[in-house]
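Let us begin with a simple case.
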Amino acid sequence: MAGTQHYDMLRNVSRTFALSIEQLPVPLRDIVTVAYLLFRIADCIEDHAGLQPGRKAVLLRLWASVMQGREDARGFMQEMSGLEPREDPEIDVARRADVVLDGLRALPQEPCEIVIRHVCDTSIGMARWQEHGPFVEDEVAMDDYMHEVAGRVGYLLTEVFAWHDPVIASRTGRLMQLGREFGLALQTVNIIRGMRKDYERGWVFVPRDLYEAHGLTRDSLFAPENQNRAMRVVAHLAGKAERHLRGGCTYISLLPAGSRRIRLFCIWPLLFAVKTLALSRNNPAVIASEAKITRPQVRRIVTVSSLIWWSNRLLGLYYRLLSVSRRV
């Protein structure tokens, strides 16, 4: 199972996700920690500015083979050892892939197989997109990309929750559909808030037919003189994110009322995304830099939701409040 090293790595790469993961019940806490670190190794390859797309595709497929036990981890770690900057926590996780794999092998058999299957599928999907190129043609292509990097995460979590909880297992069919929506919701918000940074590293995840419909190109989308048209593009994406977020809210409503820790694990990232979307709407910062929620806002969301986690009605009211106000 996950040990001290795994939790230290988790906190170093994401304090926000660590907050959600570490309050899960054992053994879910260990399973999701290991799964998250495995996904972050794939993310490290996908995001690294010093690697060419073809090389990224090769490494992502190699990583999938390592997890499946078809390749030795030592060769993969040798490839990761030369990545810079050395102080990057995500790169540190990739360099210590053997430690993460030890945690994977210590998991119970069924969740171990679930984790391997979905992380491998995501890694191979990422490789396909690296070969595709740094653009998406339309919303169908955008959804395909987001499914590979986030929708599959929703599948993984739902299967692991079902393994742990028989009530959730009885609702798996509907939850699997909504789990994908949940993943797409979080990823759409990530794309909106990270538009500028993605562009600076060579990627534009905004559908090409969307910005072209407003007379823009992938470069002019970010030009200050085109701000009004660019914000109409953002508004369209915000509407898409909201539709997916409502699916995530329905997902949470189907989780058993007594499963406090699992519900909170899902509630926190959903409400963080709702708040981030509220900050991003009509906000030119998403074009010029980035829109992010503050630590006090994170603490407030955690505090309020920790009091109302059991009530779908109260959560729905709080969801709507966060979605319409930048100040709450």
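The second case is a distinct protein. As before, the sequence precedes its structure tokens.
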Amino acid sequence: MSSLTAQFGGPITRLKLFLALSRTPHGLLDMTMPVAAALLWLGHFPPLGVALLGLFTVFAGYTAVYAVNDLADLKVDRDNYQGGRGDTSGYLDAVYARHPMAMGLLTRREGLIWTACWGVAALVGAYVLNPVCAWLLLAGCALEVVYCMLLKVSHLRSLVNAIVKSLGGVAAILAVDPGAPWWFPALLLLTTSAWEVGGQNIPADWFDLEEDQRQGARTLCVALGVDHAGTVAYYCLCGVVVGTLALLLAAPMGFGLVGALLGAGLIGWLLLPPGLALFRRKGRGEAAALFNRASYFPVVLLGFLLAWMLFV
């Protein structure tokens, strides 16, 4: 028995490996975006039954889609691990273990079973909420596979991943209001796509820059160089602040200009300082810091909405 297998052999730690496969510590932060999107559009809490089913479906869907990424990228992740991946301490996506199948801590069969069970549960829940949501879930899974397949083809794969990460919020709006006008989910998609590219995708690829260069991967950091990638990331984060302002102004919650500026300013405080630090110093540590801090964007947005609903 290897030292790694022995280290992760207990039932609780085995569960942690499956959670690591789905990046659950990070995923829980992402799961707050659909909740925030639903509240932002409705302006109030949905009926209890819809809320509970929605929360379960969100958890199942994100758990499945994140695991799909590791299944589709298994060979690449295994090569990176065997090639000696650098230090991952302090990196949110490395909580518990990073890519446990690639490390040999989970088998591919175990990963497939885990993903399929959560995927079926999410699909059923999404269909009950709104059949369109089920189609969005299937589209998200398919696009996640496409994203992985484009690793050595085009750096524009980042746009595919941005759409995948944005579909959860779009589906949440349609789940609570099937008649929502198209422009509000579209505005949300643009805003969350900018967040994904500038605050998640670029800093994550920056963190893995050496491995990506060694494998010939086509990422924004490799294709554009770190100078230009840092510029793209910072302007995307500025776009998130502007998009947040537009969403708050357009939402039926009655923020007004002052409330919208307050919310957008809070998001700016969260995203822009670490984005500027990466732009200026261009270090791996700054990339990890931006990724970690930007991961809290959905949580901060949800917290602002809840505070407004409760106290204003």
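Residues 1-6 have pLDDT under 50 and may be disordered. The longest helix spans residues 220-250.
Keep these points in mind for the review questions at the end of the chapter.
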